[in-house]
Amino acid sequence: MPRPPSAAALADLQAVVGAAGCLTDAAAVAPFLADHRRLYRGATPLVLLPKNTGEASRLLAICHRELCAVVPHGGNTGYCGGATPDSSGTQIVLALQRMQRIRSIDRMNLSLIAEAGCTLSAVQEAAQQADRLFPLSLGSEGTAQIGGVLSTNAGGTAVLRYGMARDLVFGLEAVLADGRVLSVLKALRKDNTGYDIKSLLIGAEGTLGIITAANLKLFPQPQDAATALAGVDSPAAALALLQRLRDATGDMLTGFELMPRFAVEITALQIAGVANPLALSAAWFVLVELAGPGEDLNLRTRLEATLAAAHEAEVITDATVAMSMTQAEAMWKLRESIPEAQTRRGASLKHDVSVPVSLVPELIQRGGELIARLAPLGDMIAYGHMGDGNLHFNASLKVGAAVAEFRRCAPVLEQAMFDLVESLGGSISAEHGIGQLKAAEFARRADPVEIALMHALKRTLDPRGILNPGKVLLSGP
Amino acid sequence: MPRPPSAAALADLQAVVGAAGCLTDAAAVAPFLADHRRLYRGATPLVLLPKNTGEASRLLAICHRELCAVVPHGGNTGYCGGATPDSSGTQIVLALQRMQRIRSIDRMNLSLIAEAGCTLSAVQEAAQQADRLFPLSLGSEGTAQIGGVLSTNAGGTAVLRYGMARDLVFGLEAVLADGRVLSVLKALRKDNTGYDIKSLLIGAEGTLGIITAANLKLFPQPQDAATALAGVDSPAAALALLQRLRDATGDMLTGFELMPRFAVEITALQIAGVANPLALSAAWFVLVELAGPGEDLNLRTRLEATLAAAHEAEVITDATVAMSMTQAEAMWKLRESIPEAQTRRGASLKHDVSVPVSLVPELIQRGGELIARLAPLGDMIAYGHMGDGNLHFNASLKVGAAVAEFRRCAPVLEQAMFDLVESLGGSISAEHGIGQLKAAEFARRADPVEIALMHALKRTLDPRGILNPGKVLLSGP
Lengths: 477, 477
What we know:
Oligomer: homodimer
Number of helices of chain A: 17
Number of strands of chain A: 19
């Protein structure tokens, strides 16, 4: 339904933001046309940079009137091409990067209002300056913007304790498809007045409205942490360790990341400054983190005792507890460097999937068999947020093997992997979202009633189909 | 748009559920026609009791075809008349009470599937039998059904730590207005595939669909708790105590309930077996609870130390820490008996409101002035979940004063109280919802863009307007 913008429409849009608020020069526009992973390359007549919600509202009103498609754009760190325009050259890019104020912070209420263009790091820092914690954390936090973080319902390493982005929002300000501004920025822990529109906009990848600001939940800063690497013989043993840690430490368990020995080997080999637990005899490693309010909790002693009991019960083969902040950081660096090590090693086939935590061992067993059978040139690297049931289930090309042949396995492996995940009651996109990358697959696999409802909601909130067309939902139905 | 059901339509509905699944006899139907607080009294041609989701689906399909209004009904413990049919005698009541299976429990994944008719107590017990915790807890939990708990996004005493009902749901099964069944019962901590429809149905009070089952989040059972009553001179001091407890104990702080001395006096006087802290010199009391995974956390010692430091800093006037489970229970009984003591004392004017936690002292100061000015025959009893910013802000008739004159103050006081709450960025319904009681007030006060969106969503999910008409949203626009 959207159509190419007329010259008059483009002029109207430019008039709203002025010269400082739009980019048309090819070099300036280029960064907005390709996604982070270089999977997609688009074109646009115009990149718009509104400096406040009022401007964003007037831009959307014009786009709505003119049936002009709009692609919202944040830090461009997404994995599914959600912020990249299509190749038609008719879709306007609306980038929120100039809206980067922290509007207010309420220490006692543990809340903070940030505009969409604030980087995740900037939000974390503003919270920290008030001796508070904004817990959402992910590798690209220096670049990712809070508008994109919320629009994709980002996850990261702290989900086990603090939840996904959606769980960290009190209220939103958003511009709707027709330019109306929804402003519900209240910071209330309890508010049962009507439908939860906020949760609908979060995770909608800019297809139902454009988030311009959010009132975010903060937490007390943890005052102490303890970190360890434990070796286990199998994912089932890792699951048993998770259960023990939960029972012994409850909410103090803030990290539980699983890594296969092979991933640790390639990472320790290639990346400087990472912890190296390979002296431990183990097929799998688990990075465990506890955090809590005060040093008198003796978290390190507590962690050591729990691991000792797990060792006694033959749940773990061995463990190393970090004795300093530096050691703890090296352990986290090991975990966080796996993607980089994988990239340096060569081609990968990647899947971001989740299953109930109880079924992670079965997922690994059967997913490993799929890789061996369907992508035999690859080694399995299934690692990640086991405490959330979310693994990055990848195959990494064996050294010296033929990359083209390996890549040809991708579609068949993906189908088989998604079938497996589906059979285990899991998700084909745990934290990366749908974007354009998985829109067709999602359309094919989603519950028919659920996806019909999503299309109905899309038509209701964006009747002219101008908001980020082709993302999340395929056109239609 | 709904119309009175024809005899044929009623026969079709009865045929779906059989004789065991419908009530027409006046005595059997009577309990479904009045709400818990006896604010409303309705009429119905038929109470339907489907025994499974298939039956519920077929009933809704018939109602949709026949334009027959349906009022979903759970444990009937709501405060706003959300489950009571209107007086026209044309609205069918659909009660979920026969759907009371716990379908499954996954200890390791910390999840449980319950049907809508399970009481909240039954869910708590099923979790406990698996050594897990379903944390949602409220006074009427023995009667309230999980379908109603979710449909009203219930709160209760554990929100500070565990969130509202919406925060405790992985997935839902629901029958839509036309009888289609949405079945997304996955128990995933991460799933970014499309729009969050589940959050939309939760808290919609049966106006967008009828919840038939839910996959609920469980937690490890806390192994230790510590409870205390602290005296403070003012709500501002209570706020300072809250801050100290958060900093010192983080997530172990699971309860922070504020009570004015007057409420404690009338409760200690009238209800047997409650803790009596009146020997402490204080204008306000705070019930504090810590909970954690193991006894080695020494929660009582920790609580004592934090309270001692607060006393040293003149934040609290004094405190009593429970030395036994019996003492802790008596403290909670004091808090939970306030409504009963208020009822026994006489008439009340009640408001369930929330503000940012930081503004609770201002709310109490200014709200107290409103009661003194606009309902001078009442004494202020503002008490409740201060840690969530949610107070039950009531006026209780002075002994011997004229009840009719007092009640006449209600509309003016309510308007002034809601104006005050609104000016503080608060909510006119923190945890009780809208139902029919607050629908007009909500329509008047809501953000116009927000309420227009809610109406649009209602039309999309219930185009014929048959689902719980007149609740949450007034008819129209």
